[in-house]
Amino acid sequence: MRAVVYRGPKNVTVEEVPDPTIQSPTDAIIRITTTNICGSDLHMYEGRTSVEEGKVLGHENMGVVEAVGEGVDRIAVGDRVSVPFNIACGTCRNCTTGWTSFCLRANPTEGMDGAAYGYANMGPYDGGQAEYLRVPWADVNLLHLPEGTEHENDFTMLSDIFPTGWHGVELSGFQVGDRVAVFGGGPVGLMAAHSAMIRGASQVFVVDKETDRLALAEKFGATPIDFSAADPVEQLMDATGGRGVDRGVEAVGYQAHDATGEEHPELVLDNLAQVVRSTGGIGVVGVYMPQDPGATSDLAKEGRIPWQFGTFFTKGQSMGTGQAPVKRYNRQLRDLIVAGRANPGLITSHELGLDQAVEGYQHFDDRDSGWTKVLLHPGG
Ligand SMILES: NC(=O)c1ccc[n+]([C@@H]2O[C@H](COP(=O)([O-])OP(=O)(O)OC[C@H]3O[C@@H](n4cnc5c(N)ncnc54)[C@H](O)[C@@H]3O)[C@@H](O)[C@H]2O)c1
Ligand SMILES: [Zn+2]
Ligand SMILES: [Zn+2]
């Protein structure tokens, strides 16, 4: 089959690789209909992870079940399904309490709880930017979708970014009527803004410098804040009468940069501690790494990020972090899509064939104007 393969920094290729096979009775094989490029893939693409060459990328997958192992009984051949980016066993302590993103059994990597498809340190699993994908523990992991092709571009956001945005809002301790500042207007930040609006925020701000992304934020009913125009903390304080926001969502990650493009991994954490009111909450879904050899400072290379913890403490703020447990939310979010209450597909900017993945990576990585979210359709 054809697949997108990591070959080194800024180098992905579309190659012929072996078809996946059923390896365990609880496996399923999915024929991929849509698979997205994610901001998380860019950390690998830019050479800022330890991902090995030859890895098939892609953790945002959906499709139709092609084959099932003999131990699979909830999922059948022909079912249309969404595949959460987390690979979960469904039976360990973390999985049974709803934390499938920290499954204790799926990832053999020392010191890492939680597994995913086609991702650095997340286990030996190939990704789904390919024609077919092997899904372990298929009964646990797969979400049924209505038959046919309707809502394809909405449902494809269920594998990661829509639940992740929702999780960022959840981790912030959100309550109805809150004012929320989302840092990062990429796909995850936009989904956090959409989620906060659906959940009854009184006002949502989205902070970024990319004007096309800020324009999309407005489409979801959010107020755009351009951090290249002026200090975003001052802008948010002015916009809230000096009070600050109730909740903050971090949807940028460790490659946060200033208006000149220079990286400062502490920048957004500092901004959030400053702009969230006392006793307010912060949800961090942007990724931070235990080690970052590509960082500019020696501390950051060791995963140490000096930030305004004193401000955070003094204001009595709280913070939640980590990979999103997609399965906790994806059924409910699917139903909001079907009911017409959620439109995550609105952020789709490009739909490409698998063979165009290389240009998709280049443009999305450059944050070229208009390249907000790239969907690949391996079937053409
Ligand atoms: N926790 C999870 O489960 C999970 C899941 C998916 C993605 N992620 C992570 O979420 C983050 C965002 O993902 P994405 O797909 O939206 O990526 P993206 O790279 O497309 O978007 C990041 C955005 O942040 C903006 N940005 C950079 N510095 C900023 C600053 N100082 N202030 C405000 N905005 C700034 C960039 O301009 C960009 O638009 C990444 O770190 C990704 O790895 C986490
Ligand atoms: Zn993703
Ligand atoms: Zn588990």
UniProtKB/TrEMBL annotation:
Every Alcohol dehydrogenase-like N-terminal domain range: 25-140
Identify one Pfam family in the record: ADH_N
| Protein's UniProt keywords contain Transport | no
Which intervals hold domain Alcohol dehydrogenase-like C-terminal?
187-256
InterPro entries of this UniProt entry? Answer: ADH-like_C, ADH-like_N, ADH_Zn_CS, GroES-like_sf, NAD(P)-bd_dom_sf
Cofactor(s) of this protein = Zn(2+)
A single GO molecular function term of this UniProt record: oxidoreductase activity
In terms of superkingdom, the source organism counts as: Bacteria
Q: Does the keyword Oxidoreductase apply?
A: yes
Keyword list, A-Z: Metal-binding, NAD, Oxidoreductase, Zinc
Could you tell me which PANTHER family the record lists for this protein? GLUTATHIONE-INDEPENDENT FORMALDEHYDE DEHYDROGENASE, ZINC-TYPE ALCOHOL DEHYDROGENASE-LIKE
Q: Into which family does the record put it? A: Belongs to the zinc-containing alcohol dehydrogenase family.
Protein name (Swiss-Prot/TrEMBL) = Glutathione-independent formaldehyde dehydrogenase
UniProt source species: Blastococcus xanthinilyticus
